[in-house]
């Protein structure tokens, strides 16, 4: 049910607008306000999907209502209602954030099209906000240790820039979380975030995956295909486990970073790309350079900012928060009540050697929730969390 508010000081026009909208759809719930002050009180109390607002009104005019609404409910679309002499003002309200304006007397088709478009936009904005919150929750960085506080501080400083970032650390420590937060807190967050696991792609296919290919470039290349760099245009590409990338692909990545251009496999045509590169590895790239397995010039291009994500054994103080976080998430996923952990159980978990890091801890917490008692005890940990 779409909630629509009509703010109009002329009762006859309010009645006409309400009649048109309610007859158009049973999904429109229409409310009225006879002046700007009354309208603002309703807007503060209720989340409307659309507001239709007259411009010339006593006590508080439409421009004032628009400006006030943008401060308290910035995502609420507003359509301004203008008389013949208000057209210049109506156009100006667009610059102030109005979705559109309609003239008096309202043209039926114009009114209904404007209302539909405004509601569609509100739905889109609401869905994007919901997805944004979902992504943020999915990639939440849990912990208040000095190590995590330092990483969060670096992210806050680096994310708004265009600096390339190399994230290092063992498997399972959460390097992808750092990459996602760098993207979400950047000016590119409205663009795509494309992830490439370089270790999971066969070496003979990595160049096609990254840069695309043209039809006939190799066997089974039946049509032109864009690569990940093109898909990430305007956003961020995350090259996970970049230490596993072939030297040939490294050379092409280096060119892409230097010239902001890529070439599809089998083509000599340059394609311009605007991409921020974030890379991650569990390897010591300086040792890889010494062994001739990684290009030193590419390393220096990627490692403008270095972020080291520590193993879980170096941030044991975060384990109580992580256990609580995972227990809550697992309960949500399984539709069950959140199961608590006793103090001795937490202490026991803090004493473990977490070779698999946070990923291993998450699996152990899930196992304990399934196999342990109503409250996970130290005995449960000894029985079910064994290596």
Q: Describe it for me?
A:
By secondary structure, the chain is an alpha/beta fold. The protein folds into three domains: 2-135, Response regulator (Rossmann fold); 141-310, P-loop containing nucleotide triphosphate hydrolases (Rossmann fold), CATH 3.40.50.300; 313-384, Helicase, Ruva Protein, domain 3 (Orthogonal Bundle), CATH 1.10.8. The protein has 16 helices and 16 strands. The strands form five sheets. Strands 2-1-3-4-5 form a five-stranded parallel beta sheet, sandwiched between helices. Strands 7-10-13-6-14 form a five-stranded parallel beta sheet. Helix 4 (87-95) links the parallel strand 4 (78-82) and strand 5 (100-103). Helix 2 packs parallel to helix 3 (62-72), helix 13 (319-334) crosses helix 15 (357-371) and helix 14 packs parallel to helix 16.
For the record, the CATH architecture of the largest domain stands as 3-Layer(aba) Sandwich
Strand content: 15-25%
Using only C-alpha atoms, the radius of gyration works out to 28 Å
Strand order of the largest sheet: 2-1-3-4-5
- Quaternary state reads single chain
């Amino acid at each position: 049910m779409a909630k629509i508010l009509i703010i109009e000081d002329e009762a006859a026009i309010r009645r006409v607008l309400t009649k048109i909208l309610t007859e158009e759809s049973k999904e429109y719930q229409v409310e009225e306000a006879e002046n700007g002050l009354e309208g603002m009180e309703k807007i503060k109390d209720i989340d409307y999907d659309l507001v239709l607002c007259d411009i010339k009104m006593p006590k508080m005019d439409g421009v004032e209502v628009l400006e006030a609404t943008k401060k308290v409910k910035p995502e609420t679309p507003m359509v301004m209602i203008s008389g013949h002499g208000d057209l210049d003002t109506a156009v100006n309200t667009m610059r102030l954030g109005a979705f559109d304006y309609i003239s008096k007397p309202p043209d039926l088709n114009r009114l209904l099209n404007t209302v539909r478009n405004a509601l569609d936009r509100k739905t889109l904005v609401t869905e994007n906000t919901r997805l944004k919150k979902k992504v943020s929750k999915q990639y939440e960085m849990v912990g208040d240790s000095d190590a995590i506080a330092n990483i969060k501080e670096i992210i806050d400083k680096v994310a708004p820039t265009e600096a390339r970032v190399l994230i290092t650390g063992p498997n399972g420590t959460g390097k992808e979380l750092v990459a996602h937060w760098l993207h979400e807190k950047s000016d590119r967050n409205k663009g795509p975030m494309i992830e490439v696991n370089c270790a999971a792609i066969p070496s003979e296919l990595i160049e096609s995956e990254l840069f695309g290919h043209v039809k006939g470039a190799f066997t089974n290349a039946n049509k032109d295909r864009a690569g990940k760099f093109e898909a990430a245009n305007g956003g961020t590409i995350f090259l996970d486990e970049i230490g596993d990338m072939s030297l040939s692909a490294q050379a092409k990545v280096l060119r892409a970073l230097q010239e902001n251009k890529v070439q599809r496999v089998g083509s000599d045509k340059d394609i311009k790309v605007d991409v921020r590169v974030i890379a991650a590895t569990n390897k010591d790239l300086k040792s890889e350079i010494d062994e001739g397995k990684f290009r030193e010039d590419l390393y220096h291009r990627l490692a403008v900012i270095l972020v080291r994500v520590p193993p879980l054994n170096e941030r044991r103080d975060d384990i109580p928060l992580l256990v609580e976080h995972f227990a809550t998430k697992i309960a949500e996923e399984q539709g069950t009540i959140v199961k608590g952990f006793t103090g001795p159980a937490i202490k026991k978990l803090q004493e473990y050697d977490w070779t698999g890091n946070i990923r291993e801890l998450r699996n152990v917490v899930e196992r304990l929730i399934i196999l342990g008692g109503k409250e996970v005890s130290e005995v449960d940990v000894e029985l079910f969390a064994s290596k």
